[in-house]
Specification:
The chain has about 130 residues and is of the alpha+beta class. It has one domain: Nuclear Transport Factor 2, Chain: A (Roll), CATH 3.10.450. It contains 3 helices and 6 strands. It has a 6-stranded mixed sheet. It is globular, with a radius of gyration of 14 Å. The N and C termini lie far apart (about 40 Å).
Length: about 130
């Protein structure tokens, strides 16, 4: 796989994640992950599998991040093995109200894997940029 193909693939996955977030659709968000995926959020909490990832996102979409928008910009996509891409994105989250109101950025490192059902995320870790 070339870097150009890895970039295109990672951008497509990010577009699906961004759409799911901005639609406040936890199920769609969770469907972007493999069955054994791990997701570490900005607070270091671990969720495993698409159902847990979806449930966690459903919760935040209806509470602390209600009405928020998230813009995901690919920083880098590197093919590391056949069917495996390491991707880094810069995510800009805009929260309109509540205790976390404001704009903040995070860097997200994800491992994407290709399979019969397309490209999904196998592991993802989010790091908040700057202080809260």
């Amino acid at each position: 796989m070339t870097t150009i193909t890895a970039t295109t693939t990672a951008c497509r996955v990010l577009a699906r994640l961004e759409h799911a977030w901005n639609s406040a659709d936890g199920d769609a968000y969770g469907r972007q992950y493999t069955e054994d995926a791990t997701f570490v959020n900005v607070d270091g909490l671990l969720a495993t599998g698409p159902a847990a990832i979806a449930a966690g996102h459903d919760h935040i979409f209806s509470t602390i991040y209600a009405g928020s928008t998230n813009r995901m910009h690919l920083v880098e996509a590197v093919p590391v093995a056949d069917g495996v891409i390491a991707a880094v994105s810069r995510n800009t989250l805009d929260v309109p109200a509540g205790p976390l109101a404001g704009v903040r950025q995070a860097l997200v490192t994800s491992v994407l894997v290709g399979g019969a059902d397309g490209w999904r995320i196998s592991a993802s870790q989010t790091t908040l940029v700057g202080a809260r």
